[in-house]
Amino acid sequence: MPKLRVLIMGLAVMLALSGRAWADAKLPEDIQWLTNDSDPVYAADKAVKGGTLNTAILSFPMTFRTVGPDSNGSFRSAVLDNDLSLINIHPNTLNIIPELATHWAFGKDKKTMYFKLNPNARWSDGKPVTASDYVFTLEFMRSPHIVAPWYNDYFTREIDKVIVFDDYTIAVVGTKAEPDLYLKLGIAPTPRHFYGTLGPDFVSRYNWKVAPNTGPYQIDDFQTGKDIRFKRKKDWWAQDLKYFRNRFNVDRVNYTVVRDFNMLWEYFKKGKVDVFGLTIPKYWHDKTQIPIFEKGYAEKIWFFNDTQQSAMGMWLNQDREIFKDKNVRYAFSYAMNIEKVIDQVLRGDYFRLEQAFVGYGPYTNDTIKARRFDLEKVDYYMKASGWRRGADGIWEKNGRRFSVEVTYGFEEHTPRLVVLKEEAKKAGIELILQQSDPTAAFKKFLEKNFDVAWMGWSTSLRPQYWEHFHSVNAHKPQTNNITNTDDPEMDKLIDAYRDSLDEKERIGLSREIQQKIHDIGMFVPTFMVPYIREACWRWWRLPDPPGTRHSDSLFDPFNSATGGMFWYDKKLHDETLDAMKSDRAFAPVTLIDKTYLKGR
Amino acid sequence: MTLSPLTRKKLRRFKSIKRGYYALLLFAAMIIASMFAEVLINSRALVVRYQGRYYFPVYGAMIPGTRFGLDYPYETNYRELSRRFQADGGGNWVLMPPIPFNPFENDLRTDEYPPFAPSFKDRHFLGTDTSARDMAARLVYGFRIAIFFSLTLLLVNYGVGVTVGCAMGYWGGKFDLLVQRMIEIWSNIPFLYVIIIISSIVVPNFFLLILIMVFFGWTSLTWTLRTVTYKERAREYVLAAKALGASDFRIVFKHIIPNTVSVIVTYAPFSVSGGIVALTSLDYLGFGLAPPTPSWGELLQQGWDNMDAWWIVGSVIFAMVLTLMLVTFIGEAVREAFDPKLHSTYE
Fold first, then answer.
1. Nearest to A322 by CA among A405, A262, A241
2. Contacts (Cβ under 8 Å, ≥6 apart) of A185
3. Helices (H) and strands (E) in chain B — how many of each?
4. Which pTM does this prediction carry?
5. How many angstroms separate the CA of residue A453 from the nearest CA in chain B?
6. What ipTM was assigned to the predicted interfaces of this complex?
7. Interface of A with B in 418-457 (CB under 8 A)
8. Beta-carbon separation of A411 and B286 below 8 A
């Protein structure tokens, strides 16, 4: 008898572990179902369907899988963007919008979200998307056969389980109460009927298999090493949903492999590729001074977005004796002539970053302004700390000169730094430039073995403070608190920010922390690039404004939040081809859109 | 110092080889001129006369703008000062060097982006590089660094190489065998990789770079010196010195090395050009001296990336060709002058 009991318990544990909790789950009565059909749409009414977008990739993907070995290439997003999730974020309002779910609700425990699935949702092979496919996502992502330790870990440690109430009602449960839970729990389904039971042959078996998806396009055809062709689904189940209407207009999207960037530019000039990114100043200003632009056959677009900006700048190591003094840190900030670099080296193409966390919506404290080059202020702060100018004009105190090393990892940044160095000399500060290879530089930063680090951090949807500014991470190697910030008040703010589950409170705290960063003065913000620039042939049309607040490309064909807003105009295409044949010119077009540009 | 008749004969012969002789004169002039580059190419004025007093800012401490009645406490901009004094028309004046720029300052302009083409009006006779620094200044200061780098490298390389080579030749036997094998292994360490690894960890400075290059460079000379010493050791004068009780050290340094000097001298010019090329190529690859040190390799790199700015790549290549050609001419003449087999024709 006891043996049987053990067996039953074992089965129960196995069931729980596998993430399926079928057993008579009951939907709580007191939850409030939410949806969103009131946010503005951002696609154009006049968009028409049709045409083919020809675009390029620099190398052929090593696999079509999105998990497992070799899957993390640049092509992955093209596949992944056609896998919709339960919900998404509106790129302008940042509110939740429906995707595969029509309604959602938040559980009282702050770690559960309930979803009503859209019964019309279909896989590309026509099978309906049901609750079972979400349960399978967990099984799939936790399987050792996919050889993806990161996903195994994430879907075990962050997501607890998927509860099925009926075929079209589920709950996704996280492992801990958290703010912004919806960012994590809006998972994507995985087609159970396609994968069935996973085996050890998963990696090789699915290398070149095209898995069913839920998005607007599907891979139709490909030639290994040469090209990949996507085709728009006829009668895509979601094409009339509010936020998808008038989007994903082209019939086909072809990716051709072009292995060299210069060659890609030639392809564009010949019209073999329809769009080309022009963010690099040399291309925008110089290389586009060619007939196809001057005669208006191709157009330039400069679109300002308002998205999270990398915290790029100079990070001062407060464990260095010289930077322990706040006045010296302030003086250093005032001695950096970033404006001159922007105007005279970067052609005014970059913008001054005002603080470390710009573009995080309400979480950003817009009142903070970076310290501008000001010799009088340098003078004031240095003298306040008892420094004097030496014979060579550099500040001195007790035999120590204000000479610091600036470590950086990219040769292309040298022209910016040499100008900063010459300007800093006027302010009495000597910068010694230390260029090393990017990996070595980053290692130095993490080991806190530098005076001034010239670097930028990648961004996330919400500002992250703990790793960069909490004293727990100070004075020891291999943490992201490279400035060794160790301030009890800061710790208190960060702890409160991390513990709070209330959005309003978090926003308030976030702004306070940013003010505190500015007051401590261990970071000198430098540049940001709050825009995208692209070139396209004139038969490509875009809505007005051409992108969304968070677009990072105007011609992204698939992204379910920001992609597929462009369309093809056959009449313009024919007209342009005629004009090119008879050498007739149109007025050149350079569209500059500042809808989302802040404060200018 | 008295010169042996033999040496005097060699010098005479060197002088008679006109191409090498004039190349040496020109090369020496270039080195000497570069040593006083501060006087020729500088953003600091040679002489400033202000309110009856003379200032010589070239060498010495920085003079803040306030000294000349300007409103800033940092280093005086003498070009501006000169214009201001001329406009004022008083008794004050500024004498600038022929090229009034230092190799570090960025002569940036508004609404125009470097590199700027050569212009006599702006006194950028060779234009500017991509950071708007004067090309002529970068070239000359870069030459000074390259040539002194090369000469120091030569000295240290030869110091080590000659000593070890002579020791091998002199003692011979097991010592020779052992060191030979060691050098063979040593010279198989890939030099460039080591440099790349080291400079990814630390940013090399002048002396560290010399140290690294000597570490790999000294071996090549040992083979020749070893052979020559073997030959000399068997001569009677060495035997005589030994019989008189001279120490090994004395025999090697007092007797043998002076007799091998012709070999050493013949190799020297080619090592100088080798040193220049080595530093330039390391800078080109980005593993050389840290920016913003003026360097030919860095200019070459810029020129390659900006082919339309012909003045960058043009002037660097011209400067390199000139320097290397001069050194090679000198080397050829030296070799010929020291050649014991004088080619004379009988009629």
1. A405
2. A86, A112, A113, A159, A172, A173, A174
3. 14, 3
4. 0.79
5. 15
6. 0.75
7. 418-419, 421-422, 425-428, 432-437, 439-440
8. yes
Cβ–Cβ < 8 Å for A297, A586: yes
In chain B, what residues touch A373 (CB-CB under 8 Å)? none
Sequential DSSP letters for B241-274: HHHTT--HHHIIIIIIHHHHHHHHHHHHHHHHHH
Cβ <8 Å between A392 and B62:
yes
β-sheet with A52-57: strand ranges across: A52-57, A252-257, A227-232, A217-223
> Phi/psi class of residue A97: alpha, beta or left (left: φ > 0; alpha: ψ in -120 to 50)?
beta
CA dist A420 and A409 (Å) reads 16
SS (H, E, C) A213-228: CCCCEEEEEEECCCEE
- Edge to edge, the sheet with strand A311-316 lists A430-435, A403-408, A452-457, A311-316, A523-525
Six token digits for residue B262: 């012709």
Report the residue from A393, A426, A434 with minimal CB separation from B203.
A434
Out of A392, A421, A435, name the one closest to residue B61 (CB).
A392
Q: What is the pLDDT at residue B345?
A: 56
CB interface of A with B, residues 310-329, below 8 Å: none
Q: How confident is the model over A520-544, as pLDDT tens digits? A: 999 999 999 999 999 999 999 999 9
- Partners of residue B72 in chain A, C-beta under 8 Å: 375, 426
Can you spell out the DSSP letters for B48-66? EEETTEEE--SSSS--BGG
Any bridge partners for residue B112, and if so which? B109
Subunit contact B61:A345, Cβ cutoff 8 A: no
Q: Nearest-CA residue of chain B relative to A342?
A: B110
Residue in B75, B130, B200 nearest the CB of A415: B130
φ/ψ of A386, rounded to 5, equals 80, 25
Q: Are A565 and A42 in contact (CB under 8 A)?
A: yes
- Residues 6 or more apart whose Cβ sits within 8 Å of residue A206: A63, A64, A65, A68, A195
For testing contact with chain A, the best of B71, B80, B131 (most A CBs within 10 A): B131
| DSSP symbol at A556 | -
| Strand bridging mode A403-408 / A452-457 | parallel
In order, the DSSP letters of B128-196 are B-TTS-BHHHHHHHHHHHHHHHHHHHHHHHHHHHHHHHHHHHHH-HHHHHHHHHHHHHHTTS-HHHHHH
- Which residues have CB under 8 Å from B291's CB, separation 6+? A414, A417, A418, A433, A435, B298
- B17 touches B336 (CB < 8 A): yes
Backbone φ and ψ for A461, nearest 5 degrees, come out as -65, -35
Enumerate the residues of chain B whose CB falls inside 8 A of the CB of residue A261. Answer: none
Tokens 């069935």, residue located: A196
- Of the candidates A97, A80, A22, the one whose C-alpha atom is nearest the C-alpha of residue A559 is A80
Q: Does B293 touch chain A (CB under 8 A)?
A: no
The verdict on a CB contact (< 8 Å) between B106 and A436 is no
Tens-place pLDDT, residues A262-318:
889 999 999 999 999 998 887 898 889 999 999 999 999 999 999 999 999 999 999
| B38, B58 contact by CB (below 8 A) | yes
pLDDT tens, position by position, A466-524: 999 999 999 988 889 999 999 999 999 999 998 888 889 999 999 999 999 999 999 99
CA B324 to each of CA A356, A548, B27, B272, B317: distance values in angstroms, whole numbers, following the listed order: 51, 59, 10, 9, 10
Inter-residue contact A136 to A19 (CB < 8 Å) = no
Q: Which of A279, A298, A275, A218 is nearest to A251 (CA)?
A: A218
